[in-house]
Write a structure and sequence with these properties.
The protein is of the alpha+beta class and about 270 residues long. Helix content is about 35%, strand content about 30%. The chain has 2 domains: about 1-95; about 100-255, Thrombin, subunit H. The chain contains 2 helices and 13 strands; from the N terminus they run ααβββββββββββββ. The longest helix has about 80 residues, at about 20-95. The radius of gyration is 43 Å and the shape is elongated.
């Protein structure tokens, strides 16, 4: 009872005169490490939880950004492919303006894997008016001719096939020749040209129109080599096709004006 009364008197005195303030400050300095030690596990747990949560959030955001980057790269590649396709179609459209007759744009569906047969399958057939013997072109020149027609597709043989021969003439002076396939995508040969024939490297070869298979005036190839051996009666002449036989995807079918070939129901 006496101790309680003394405590009350001391508290009252301290409240009025602040006599114990220095003692309280000293005790707080002594007690602080103990309070910090007691609070340390709680603070450490809270810090670890926040760190783990932040790391998990960063990993999730990183994964989401990687996925988004992959999708954007894929879309960018698709846009590049569409841009290239648009350029090819524009070139075909500009080339079609120079064609005298009806035309139809087709797409190559398949390529013959046999290295000795240069053939492609296109997505247009008899239902579109395609017929055997019809010329096939791209934006840069003659590619070949149709050899088989189905209702919805057709097969074309390229001019580089070893069984192909196309009548041509030198655009510079009108010299006529036959360009035959060699089995190589980048080479044609012009056999039976005399050593004194006026043909030069760089000459453009165009269709002559002879034989009635190809209309005249279409680019076929450009002369790349002329070898003359006095001991032989004929010169060795090779040329490179102007058409992109191994790269073109969109092609053009031609119905020469005035030639009956099953007029296309979908064309120009």
């Amino acid at each position: 009872m006496v101790f309680a009364l003394a405590s009350i008197l001391l508290m009252t005195a301290d409240h009025r005169a602040q006599h114990l303030e220095a003692l309280r400050g000293a005790l707080s300095v002594v007690v602080y490490p103990l309070q910090y030690a007691v609070d340390l596990p709680v603070a450490a747990g809270r810090w670890i939880e926040e760190t783990v949560t932040s790391r998990r959030r960063l990993l999730e955001e990183n994964a989401a950004l990687r996925t988004q980057q992959f999708v954007l790269k894929t879309e960018l590649q698709r846009m590049a492919a569409l841009e290239a396709e648009n350029l090819r179609l524009r070139a075909l459209h500009e080339s079609s303006a120079q064609v005298d007759g009806r035309i139809l744009i087709a797409e190559i569906m398949a390529v013959d894997l046999d290295p000795y047969k240069h053939r492609v399958v296109i997505d247009k057939g008899g239902d579109d008016g395609v017929c055997v013997g019809q010329p096939l072109l791209d934006a840069d020149g003659v590619m070949g001719q149709i050899t088989h027609v189905g209702p919805l597709s057709a097969t074309a043989m390229l001019i580089t096939d070893v069984s192909q021969a196309i009548p041509v003439q030198v655009n510079r002076d009108g010299l006529r020749a036959i360009a035959v396939g060699t089995g190589a995508m980048d080479r044609l040969e012009l056999p039976h040209l005399p050593n004194n024939a006026d043909i030069r490297v760089g000459d453009l070869l165009v269709t002559s129109g002879l034989g009635g298979r190809y209309p005249s005036g279409y680019p076929v190839a450009r002369v790349t080599a002329v070898r003359r051996d006095p001991g032989r009666p004929f010169a060795e002449v090779t040329a490179t096709p102007t058409a992109h036989l191994d790269r073109s995807r969109e092609v053009m079918l031609v119905w020469p004006r005035g030639k009956a070939c099953g007029a296309a129901r979908r064309g120009r």
